[in-house]
Amino acid sequence: MKIESATVIVTSPGRNFVTLKITTSDGVTGLGDATLNGRELAVATYLSEHVVPTLIGRDPQNIEDTWQYLYRGAYWRRGPVTMAAIAAVDMALWDIKAKLAGVPLYQLLGGASRIGCLAYGHASGADLPAIYDSIDEHLELGYRAIRVQTGIPGLGSVYGVASSGGAGTAGTVRYDYEPAQPLGVPSEEQWDTRAYLRHLPTVFEAVRSKYGPELPLLHDGHHRMTPIQAAKLGKSLEEFDLFWLEDCTPAENQDALKLVRQHTTTPLAIGEIFNTVWDYQYLITNQLIDYVRSAVTHTGGITAMKKLMDFAAIYQIKSGFHGPTDISPVGQAAALHLGLAIHNFGIQEYMKHSAAALDVFHTSYTFENGLLHPGETPGLGVSLDEDAAAAYPYVQAYLPVNRLLDGTMHDW
Length: 412
Ligand SMILES: [Mg+2]
Description:
Blueprint: E1 3-11, E2 17-24, E3 29-33, H1 40-55, H2 63-73, H3 80-101, E4 117-125, H4 128-141, E5 146-150, E6 188-191, H5 193-211, E7 217-220, H6 227-237, E8 244-246, H7 256-263, E9 268-270, H8 281-285, E10 291-292, H9 301-313, E11 318-321, H10 329-341, E12 347-349, H11 355-360, E13 361-363, E14 366-368, E15 371-373, E16 382-384, H12 386-390, E17 401-404, E18 409-410
Parallel strand pairs: 4-5, 4-12, 5-7, 6-17, 7-8, 8-9, 9-10, 10-11, 11-12
Antiparallel strand pairs: 1-2, 2-3, 4-15, 13-16, 14-15, 17-18
The structure holds magnesium ion.
Residues 220, 246-247, 272 line the site of magnesium ion.
């Protein structure tokens, strides 16, 4: 059996997705997600111009060898574009292998370690009543863990708050937060870390007292604090028992988390902008994080993520795979098969894709009683309707940028 063709499909049902479809000489097809939010065409071009020509004629069953061929063979290693491209090939080959075996992919990864993957949803609001409404809606949908993001008094649009202007698609509903916006240039948001540090603990105090001690609550700091600010925040949130504080500092300065750790027992999650196990080596061996936030899509696929999670397991570090709607249903399915199989699963980020996206991607995964399950369809369990995809051509869209009140560029 050989790889006969590989095609890159870019579609924008409400937001952009990049998908690789590999077809074997036996007519078996596999799908891989290569979506890199705001930089989609860079990966699409990397795949179509540089990767696809090298795939034709290869044995689709040799997944490890193909991974090493693409990683080592490029010479220029790592980075989000390269690793998303490798991830797409890797996912598609695992999809094919599981289809050939006639089993859902998680069976090839060791079988199920649990009945389902605990999911967390994104609740947000400009103020407390709006946040309560959003949490209530998520609880009614069945979520058993909630990320809480809040507006900050005195600031306009801020990260993670749907009602304060994150609308990426026309007529989007309030909780369908899609930060990439179809504008010619990125939109600009405002930030004031001191105002945030004052306000956020008051929100968690109110939410914790309203919803009681059991509900797992999460928060994303989105890389905005200095080490000492993050230490202060972790300490001030400790009494509200967060499941995790995510991306409290920019991920590049890894020693920052040593300072944070010295001051707080609030669990830390990081890694959604990381691409390889090497990005985690220092953090994992020094036990500076509690959860790995990588997306299977951005970290070289299932082959690489399985190794990363096995490495993390030695240090009792668990998964918290990145899974907002900029991960396509293909990438989400890959995360669910892996999450179901590994022993050190922690939690899975989950936002339901739009009706338009689910018109293009047909999925077999389910969300019930707060748990996600990848389903029992052989392979990844996702198919792509290419006619439906063609009806949604690529739309240029950018993630916002962020400035302090005096105009200084800051981390978004
Ligand atoms: Mg995040």
